[in-house]
C-alpha cells in the first residue's frame, strides 16, 4: 500500500485536471555548463513559474538560493546526480533524500546512463535511492538515457531501446521515468505500454521552430506520455513565460500545435 506522503506529493506534482506533469529543468549548470539562457538562472526560474509550470528541477544549491519565493506556487524536484562536460556518460551521485526533504521537494530525481561500463554502479545507486525515498514517502523520478558508448548511435532511439530504459526504471521502483521520444506516436505508445511507471518525454537541444516542438509534444501526449520535461526549449526561447503557456495548452488542455502557436504569437507580439 503506498505511503500517504508519496501520494500527497505526487498529487502536488501532477496537474489535477489533466493528470499530467509539465516540468522545466534547470540542472544544466552541472551537466553542460552555463549555457546561454541560464546565466541569470533566478530570473528564468521566475519566468517559467509565472507561466504556470507544474514543477522545476533544480540542483540543491540553486534551490536554496532561488526557490523560496516560489514555494506554494510550483513543485520542486531536487536533482541528486549529474554528468558533466568531462564525464559525459556517468551520473555522479551528490545529493540525498534527507536534503530533498529539508528543501521541501515533492520529488527527487536521479540520472542513469545505459550502455556505459559503469552502468551497474548507476543501477545500484538508483536501487538504493528508491529504497531510501520510499521510507520517506518521496517520489523518485529517473532520467534514463541510452547514451553510453556501448550502444550504437543508430540503436539509441529504437523503440525497444527506449522501452528498456523506461521498464528498467519501473523495475527498480521509480514513480516517473524521463527518457527520449522515439520519433513517432506508434513507437512511443509501445514504450508507454511496456512501462508500469509514468513516462515523461525529455526535450533535448532547442528546436529552431516552435511548431516542431509543439508537434512533438502533441504526438507524445497522444501516445500516452504522462507529460514532458523541457529545459533549453523553454528557457532559451525569447519569452519563456509565453512558451510555458503555449505548451500548457497542449499538455493540459489537449490543444493542437496551431492553437499553441496562436498563444505564443499573441503573447509575444
TrEMBL record:
The keyword Lyase applies. Signal peptide: none annotated. Its EC number is 4.1.2.56. One of its GO terms (molecular function) is fructose-bisphosphate aldolase activity. It is an enzyme of class 4 (lyase). Pfam families: DeoC (PF01791). The active site is at residues 145, 178. Keywords: Lyase. SUPFAM superfamilies: Aldolase. The keyword Iron does not apply. This is 2-amino-4, 5-dihydroxy-6-oxo-7-(Phosphonooxy)heptanoate synthase. It comes from Neomoorella glycerini. The gene is griI_2.
Amino acid at each position: 500500500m503506498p505511503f500517504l506522503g508519496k501520494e500527497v506529493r505526487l498529487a502536488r506534482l501532477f496537474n489535477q485536471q489533466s493528470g499530467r506533469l509539465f516540468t522545466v529543468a534547470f540542472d544544466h549548470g552541472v551537466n553542460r555548463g552555463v549555457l546561454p539562457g541560464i546565466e541569470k538562472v533566478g530570473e528564468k526560474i521566475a519566468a517559467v513559474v509565472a507561466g504556470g509550470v507544474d514543477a522545476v528541477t533544480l540542483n540543491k544549491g540553486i534551490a536554496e538560493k532561488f526557490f523560496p519565493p516560489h514555494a506554494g506556487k510550483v513543485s520542486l524536484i531536487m536533482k541528486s546526480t549529474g554528468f558533466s562536460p568531462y564525464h559525459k556518460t556517468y551520473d555522479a551521485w551528490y545529493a540525498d533524500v534527507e536534503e530533498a526533504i529539508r528543501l521541501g521537494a515533492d520529488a527527487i530525481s536521479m540520472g542513469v546512463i545505459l550502455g556505459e561500463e559503469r552502468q551497474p554502479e548507476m543501477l545500484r545507486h538508483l536501487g538504493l535511492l528508491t529504497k531510501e525515498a520510499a521510507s520517506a514517502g518521496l517520489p523518485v523520478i529517473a532520467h534514463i538515457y541510452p547514451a553510453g558508448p556501448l550502444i550504437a548511435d543508430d540503436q539509441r532511439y529504437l523503440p525497444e531501446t527506449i522501452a528498456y530504459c523506461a521498464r528498467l526504471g519501473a523495475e527498480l521502483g521509480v514513480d516517473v521515468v524521463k527518457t527520449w521520444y522515439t520519433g513517432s506516436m506508434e513507437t512511443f505508445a509501445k514504450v508507454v505500454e511496456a512501462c508500469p511507471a509514468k513516462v515523461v518525454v525529455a526535450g533535448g537541444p532547442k528546436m529552431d521552430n516552435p511548431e516542431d516542438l509543439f508537434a512533438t509534444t502533441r504526438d507524445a501526449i497522444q501516445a500516452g506520455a504522462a507529460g514532458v520535461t523541457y529545459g533549453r526549449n523553454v528557457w532559451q526561447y525569447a519569452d519563456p513565460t509565453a512558451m510555458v503557456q503555449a505548451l500548457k495548452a497542449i499538455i493540459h488542455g489537449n490543444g493542437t500545435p496551431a492553437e499553441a502557436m496562436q498563444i505564443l504569437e499573441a503573447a509575444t507580439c
